Predict the 3D structure of the following.
Amino acid sequence: MKVSFGSWAFIFGPHASNPVGFADAVQQIARAGYDGVEISGFPPHVTLEEYASADARASLRRLLADSGLGISGYVPDLTFI
């Protein structure tokens, strides 16, 4: 069994007034011993606009690979609905 943690937890709730950036959230999740991350598609995390280029997506893959985390899911930004 593998366990993941949602990066959105670093954007909302107690972090709403001072969100933790995605790279820092990934480091904290990895240090806590989780196997993966559910990626938040809300700013300031992994939005389609922020990672529009192939180079940006490659850096995201490197960040996750270097942290040893897999991806359990992606939560899109649905605030436009």
